[in-house]
Amino acid sequence: MENGFIEEGEKAPSSKSPMHKVDPGEPPHLTWQRRLNSNEKVPTGFTLRFQEIKDNAPVGIRWYLQFKQEAAKGRHEFSAGSIGRSYRGEFQRFTLFPGTSEDGPVLANQFSVFVSRPNGKTNSTVLSPRNPQLPKQSTASGIESWDWNLKGENSTYHALFPRSWTVYEGEPDPELRIVCRQISPFVPHNYKESSFPVSVFTFMLSNSGQTSADVTLLFTWANSVGGDSGFSGHHFNSKMMTKDGVHGVTLHHKTANGQPPVTFAIAAEETADVHVSECPCFLISGKSDGMTAKDMWNEIKKHRTFDHLDSNKTSPSEPGTSIGAAIAATLSIPSGSTRTVTFSLAWDCPEVRFYEKTYHMRYTKFYGSQGDAAVRIAHDAILEYAQWETEIEAWQRPILEDKRLPEWYPITLFNELYYLNAGGTIWTDGSPAMQSLATIKGRKFSLDRARSDLKYNNGATNENDTAVEILERMTSTLEQIHSSVRSDAALGTNLLQNGEENIGQFLYLEGSEYIMWNTYDVHFYSSFALLMLFPKLELSIQRDFAAAVLVHDPDRMKILYDGRWVPRKVLGSVPHDIGFNDPWFEVNAYNQFDTARWKDLNSKFVLQVYRDVIATDDKNFAQAVWPSVYMAMAFMEQFDKDGDGMIENEGFPDQTYDCWSVKGVSAYCGGLWVAALQAASALAHEVGDHASANYFSVKYQKAKAVYDKLWNGSYFNYDNSGSSSSASIQADQLAGQWYARACGLSPIADEDKVKRTLEKIYNFNVLKVKGGGRGAVNGMLADGRVDMSSIQSREIWPGVTYALSASMIHEGLVDMAFQTAAGVYEAAWSQEGLGYSFQTPEGWNTDDEYRSICYMRPLAIWAMQWALMKPKPKLFAEEMKHEAREDSLYLKQHAAFSKVAQILKLPEQGPKSLLQTVYDYTCKRFPW
């Protein structure tokens, strides 16, 4: 395994493989670091110029009206399955299920420490600096009464995803060093443990004093899923069964608004050195009988354990009150000695619901879907985390120790992976959705009447047997009813062949503000992370889109750009996204433009599919998706207006830069098309369709010649429309060349021209913006001024900067690549930057204003790693051995291809109505 990618014939590390031993007390030498008392820089959001407000007023008003309509339906929800933690130690960003995303911290969720020495000296504190939301002085009985004594000036947080370390140097006891290490099971090529909703926290305590230290570590957790959810009432806690020395408490949360319940488990491991005790319930806020947060805290200060509690009985919480639980680990550390304590946090929310459909999460294949898995997950994590960490260490160490890399690069490479956890990720088990009776409407049906095989004993069945049997019969019947519906959905599982593993289906959001699943034009950039680390999930996403190409959905949706009504999804087009409210069944949640007319999506589909084939050598995948690839290419034929082999843009933002208009032959979409033709030819050869391979190869040569006409002597023009922006230097103009190289294909342009273009982009788009300290601006005029023609032309997109850097690496310009990408690090991740760490936005402008915080595209840094690996894919194009030719076979193929293309052709767009024209004019004239 080199640089995290498993080479052909190589197996992923197993538990029996010899591995580098992890030092639990020391962070790696390369990590993202912050002092706990650091002042956070508050990012500044972007502002629109007057002309941009005027130009976008019609779209803005239509968007607002649509938002109101959707909100009235209870829609606009988002996702699912993670809990974040800040460098100060606060648990935040609760995104546990569709319906809520709570960014604010739950302040009762804390680790705390109590230290006493034989001389009577004591220290106690929450291991997080006091949050400003807490009253500074209070006699109340809530968490504000705890000892918030940590200053943080001698404590440092280190992050290297998926692990982090917080080193408390003499805080609160000057002779006690505490290292808290957090581990999540994000293990490349591991499709079991990597799906588990759990984190492990190990504390290494080193006593440098002359006397022993009696220490209690306290882990408190609120029965809450963030926000005000803890006050809704009817939640309850209970002690969990002790097994293998693992003690803990479960917190059962009765979620409101029709969402499935959630169960948390907090646990700790008892050893010969460590005694564990539990407080099943205490009152965080509100009025109720029982132990308060202050009482609980004082109990530990007085007794060091919860062994003296009078009662462990708990009752459901009352509405308006908030409850929590605590677990304490007590130990004595001799002078000059070190001891370790291990905790875990798990949560079990086995279902995810979309539009009356219920899916099960991936981890339920291993722990069941009854909602009782949190205890077992927390238990198993404590016993197994060492193996996860060993495998994580083996994956990361070669990159961390590669002296050829600048120090910032490995830190940023690994930490940008935060988005695969924080991006609203949902990983299902791949089984069909369970649908409610409401979706069946008037259809008549009956459950299977076959007599049960259950064994009855004195009139009773084994526990849950009846319910399980009925549920299985209902599931089987509803499965048959909905099977025809699923055939019309974008479900890639339908493309799996007999015997192929169903790894589940994977969803992640475009961004925290752009809430669409698996946005495809952006996944084009970010997909390298999944391909290198979890290639089976990458193939799962591509199967979904391959299935979507074959779907036609005539339901009408309104386009915000011009007010037209268009089909939601047309046959042959690649959807912009896999949906939002009802993913896989209702694709294209995006409706700012009619993306059936976009010029990048189909090309990006073909390129990603081909890249994934050569990366995985998965022949079944290639065969399954080839019809979709062919159809995607045929669909694009309609955009070659003059028959020269090159597609043309249509004068609106018909590609991923959806605020930046383009017309005619363009460097971005044209280059993608040239590369896609070559990829289609190579893929056809791989699946044995040699006639199509020759056909697409001929078309590739024609399109390549047209593309070359954009060359102006220094770079490729933005487009050939002759507009004021036509000569703009686009940072992303060589996206097609980048992917061609990443796929092992031939260059789409003369190599000297490619290098000269990259040098031009570096000297203008990179160096002329704050000396190269921000990344590459999307558009730059030939006179050295930023292209201000649109919002996006004047922005710097970190994901595009990473992609540009990857292209530079492919062309041998490695130093230039790292200097270019370093600007993103300086802006987003450095101590002196703009405050975007672990929330890298889509972009920022030259005024350091961000747009769309926490975004998918910056995962493209893994494209740099792909380029650095210099993979040696199977070069199908070279294997063909014969020159593409326009012979009788070509003409026959062209006739058949043209027939398919003609069937897929979109209807001509009619003129706008008078009312629509007046409406748009009014919006632009009076932008309210």
From TrEMBL:
What's the stated role of this polypeptide? Non-lysosomal glucosylceramidase that catalyzes the hydrolysis of glucosylceramide (GlcCer) to free glucose and ceramide.
State the superkingdom: Eukaryota
Q: Which InterPro entries match?
A: 6-hairpin_glycosidase_sf, 6hp_glycosidase-like_sf, B_Glucosidase_GBA2-typ, GH116_catalytic, GH116_N, Non-lysos_glucosylceramidase
UniProt lineage: Eukaryota, Viridiplantae, Streptophyta, Embryophyta, Tracheophyta
Q: Which GO terms describe its biological process?
A: carbohydrate metabolic process; glucosylceramide catabolic process
Q: Where is this region: Disordered?
A: 1-32
Q: From what organism does this protein derive?
A: Acer yangbiense
This protein's record includes keyword Cell inner membrane: no
Pfam family, any one: DUF608
Residue stretches making up the Glycosyl-hydrolase family 116 N-terminal domain: 78-388
Q: Which PANTHER family match?
A: BILE ACID BETA-GLUCOSIDASE-RELATED (PTHR12654), NON-LYSOSOMAL GLUCOSYLCERAMIDASE (PTHR12654:SF25)
Q: Which GO terms describe its molecular function?
A: beta-glucosidase activity; glucosylceramidase activity
Protein name, entry field? Non-lysosomal glucosylceramidase
